[in-house]
Amino acid sequence: MSTQIPVTVLTGYLGAGKTTLLNRVLSENHGKRFAVIVNEFGEIGIDNDLVVGADEEVFEMNNGCICCTVRGDLIRIIGGLLKRKGKFDAILVETTGLADPAPVAQTFFVDEDVKRHTKLDSVLTVVDAKHVLQRLADSPEAADQIAFADVLLLNKIDAVSPEELDAVERKLRAINPFAKIHKTERCRIGLDKVLDQGSFDLQRIVEIKPAFLGGAGHDHHHDHDPHHDHDHGHAHGPAPLEHYHDENMDSVSLSTDTPLDPGKFDAWIGEVLMTKGPSILRAKGILNLAGAEQRYVFQAVHMMSEGGFAGPWPAQDSRHSRLVFIGRELDAEALKQGFLACRMA
Amino acid sequence: MVVDIPLAERKGLSWTLDAYTVGAAATPDGRYFVCALGDGTVRVLDLTDTARGFTAFAVHAGGIQCFAPDVLAGAFLTGGDDGKLISTRLDGSTGIVADLGRVWVEHVAAHPEAGVRVWAAGKDVFVLGRKAGEEPRRMSHDSSVGGLAINPKGKRLAVAHYNAVSLWWLAAKGQPQVLSWKGSHLQVSFSPDGDYVVTAMQENALHGWRLSDGQHFRMTGYGAKIRSLSFARRGQYLATGGADTVICWPFTGGGPMGKAPLEFGDRLNGPVVTAVAAHPKLDAVAAGFENGQVIVGQPGNPQVMPIVSPARDAEPDPVSVLAWTPDGDRLLAGSEAGRVHVVDFRSLS
Predict the structure, then answer these.
(1) Which of A96, A162, B75, B136 has the fewest Cβ atoms within 10 Å of its own Cβ atom?
(2) How far apart are CA A97 and CA A280, in angstroms?
(3) A79 and A117 Cβ atoms separated by less than 8 Å
(4) CB–CB of A80 and B62 under 8 A?
(5) Which residues of A are less than 8 Å from B226 in CB distance?
C-alpha cells in the first residue's frame, strides 16, 4: 500500500551514539517529519509531541511459534500514532542497549494493524569503535544487535587507530556479512544513508554481497580464532559455502550457479526455518529458480519469512543464487548440503 | 421495504472532518452528537441545527487517544498525547481533570450514576470520585493497560492488560481479583447484568469469565483482530467485529459456552467488521466495515439495511466509531479518515 509509513529501528549498546543520532534526526532540516519512539526521554534534547516513551514490553504470541515474541507497547503506540496520520512521514524506534532486536522486527510482521499501516524499513545499529570488541566479549546482546542490522554505523572512529578500526570492521563483517557499514565520528553522516533504506522491501533487495572474507586483502578471518576447526571459505570466487563462526555468532553464505528446483527449495527452507528458526536471527537470499525469469527474493527473521519475485536480473549479473544465514550454532555443512540438494538435477 | 440505496445517501448527512474519529457519543437528551478526533479537537453537532455542521474546539495539544461521556450530562472526557485528561462541555469550555506530563492518556471511562471517572496511562489506572478536592487513586499493574470498563452498577473496574484482567473494587482499598489468561488483552467489556467480563485479545480471539462461578471461556475463529465489542441492551448477545460477518454470541441461559454464534451481514471473504454498536432499544446492531460500509441488522436475520456505501478510495477507510442516540432514532458513524455520517431512522416511517 502506498501510504505505509516507513519504520527505522535504531539499536546499539549504551554509549554507542544512538542519542546523538536521534537528536540529529529530530533537529535537522531533512524534509521529513519523524515520530520517535524512545526508550527513555533522558538525553533527547527536543520536546516534541511526536516523541513517545516506550516500555519495551515483550510478549509471546499465542500462535504456537515458540520464538514469536513481539513488542506489545509498540503495537499500542503505533496504533495511537496512527490516529494522527498525516502529521509525520516516518517512525524511528529506539531500543535500549540491552534489547534483543528480534521482537521489534517481528512486531512488524505479526500485528495486522501495524503491518497494514507501516513497513519496517531497516534495522540500524550504532557501534562504538572503541568498545565494541569488549562488548562482544561480555554481552551477547551486542552480537545480536550487530547480527540483526541492515545498516551498521561504526561510530567514534576517531577514538581508535587505523589498525584497531580495521580489526573492528572485520569483526563486524564476520558477524554480519550483508549489512552496509558506514564509518563516522559523532554520527556525522548524511541521514539519507541511514534512513529510507528499504532493507525489508523484497523489491529493493537487489544484491547480497557478503563481504565475509578478506576480499580486500585482509588476513583470513580464522587466523585470530585458533580454537576454530572449520575449514572452508577462501577468497577465490563465490565458493558454495562461506562460513564464519565464533563464540558470538555464525554466518553462513551459500551460493550456486545451477538453477534451484522451486519445489525442493521451498520444502527445504521451510524445514530449516521450522526446525532451526529460533537460532536463525536473519536470512536473506536472491535465488535463481528454474523456470522463472525473475529473481526470487527471500528473507526471514527467526521463523517468520517472506519471499516473492522481484523483477528481472540485472543485465550484468549472472543468474546466481545467493543465500545468507546469520544465527547461533548454525550447522554450516548441513545447510550447504541441503541447499545444494535443491539444485536442478 | 426496498432498501437498496443506503440510508445515508437518501436521508443522511455527511461530513469530512479530516482527522481520525477516535470516539463519539450522543448527549443523554439526544440533542447533540459529540466526536473526538485524532487532531486534538472535540466536535459538536446540534441535531436541531444540522445545517451549521460540527463546531470544532481545539482541546489537546497533541492527538486524542480516548473518549468517553463525562459524569455530568453534556460534558465529555478526552485523553491525549499531551498527557492530559480534559472534560469539554458543549459550549467548548474545558477543564483539566488530570495532567500526567509526558505520557499518553490512552483509555478513559466514566460512570455517571456512581460519579466516577477512570483513566489509564501506561501501566497505571487512576480513579476519581465526585468528592471535591480528592486526589485520584492510582492502581498499578505489571504491564500496560489495554482497556478499561466499569461494571453497570458502577462498583467494579475491569482493567485488561497482559496475561490477565484485574478486577478492582472502586470504593474499597486492597488488591484486585486477577482473572488470568495468557496473552495480551485489549478491549474489555461487562455484560449488562455485570456477571460476565469479556476481552478481545491480540490473537483474534475473545476471552470471557463468569464472575459468579469463575468459569471462563474462549471464542476463536476470527480472521482479524476484534476491535469492537457491544453487548445487546438486555445482554441477550455480544456483537463483535473481527470477521466478515457480525458475530453475535448468545449470553442468555448460562452464557456462550458450547453454543454457536448468530451472524448477519454474511459476505464470505469480504471486508472485516471494525465497529459494532447494539441498538439502545431494539434487537438490532449497527456494524461498520474496514471499507467504510455501514449496515444495521439483526442477529440471525440475513436481511440487512445498508446505511453507508463502501468508500470508493484506493485505500480503505475503516469505520472506527458508531454511536446511537439514547432513543435509538439516530446513528452516527465515523471513520479513520474522518468521514462522519448521521442518519435519522424516523425518516423511514
Answers:
(1) A162
(2) 21
(3) no
(4) no
(5) none
Q: A23 by DSSP, 3-state: which?
A: helix
Confidence of residue A236 (pLDDT cuts 50, 70, 90): very low
For the whole prediction, is pTM greater than 0.90?
no
Query: Over the stretch B98-141, which tens digit does the pLDDT of each residue have?
Result: 999 989 999 999 999 999 999 999 999 999 998 878 899 999 99
**Chain A nearest C-alpha distance from B164 (Å):** 13
Residue A320 grid coordinates: 546466481
- Give the pLDDT confidence of A183-227 residue by residue, as tens digits: 999 999 998 888 888 888 887 777 776 655 433 333 333 333 333
* Chain A residues touching residue B315 (CB < 8 angstroms): 1-3
CB atoms A57 and B162 under 8 Å: yes
Q: Band of the pLDDT at B253, cuts 50, 70, 90?
A: confident
Per CB-CB distance under 8 Å, the chain A contacts of B146 are 76
Q: Quote ipTM for the complex.
A: 0.88
Distance, CA of A97 to CA of A306 (rounded, Å) = 28
Grid coordinates given for A68? 514469536
Chain A partners within 8 Å of B183 (Cβ): 59, 62
- CB-nearest partner of B81 from A41, A49, A73: A49
CA distances from residue B253 to B100, B199, B235, B236, B250 in whole angstroms, order as listed? 44, 20, 11, 9, 8
Residues of A with a Cβ under 8 Å from any B Cβ are 1-3, 41, 49-50, 52-53, 55, 57, 59, 61-63, 72-73, 75-77, 80, 82-85, 87, 111-113
Pick the residue from chain A with its C-alpha nearest to B163: A59
**Spatial contact of B2 and B302, defined as CB atoms under 8 Å apart:** no
d(C-alpha B80, C-alpha B95), whole Å: 14
Neighbours of B301 (CB within 10 A): 13
Residues from chain B that touch A41, judged by Cβ atoms under 8 A, are: 102
CA distances from B292 to A1, B77, B278 (A): 17, 26, 18
Residue showing cell 516513551:
A53
The confidence score (pLDDT) of residue A211 equals 59
Chain A residues with CB-CB distance to B162 below 8 A: 57, 59, 72
User: How far apart are the CA of B316 and the nearest CA of chain A, in angstroms?
Assistant: 10
The size of the A-B interface in CB pairs under 8 A is 68
Task: Compute and round to an integer the Cα radius of gyration of chain B.
Answer: 19
Pairing state of beta strands B32-37 and A321-327?
unpaired
Query: What is the C-alpha radius of gyration for chain A, rounded to an integer number of angstroms?
Result: 20
Query: Does B124 touch chain A if contact means CB atoms closer than 8 Å?
Result: no
H helix and E strand count, chain A: 9, 15
Query: Residue A295 class from Cβ within 10 Å (0-12 exposed, 13-18 middle, 19+ buried)?
Result: buried
| Secondary structure class of A151 (helix, strand, coil) | strand
DSSP letter for B153, please.
T
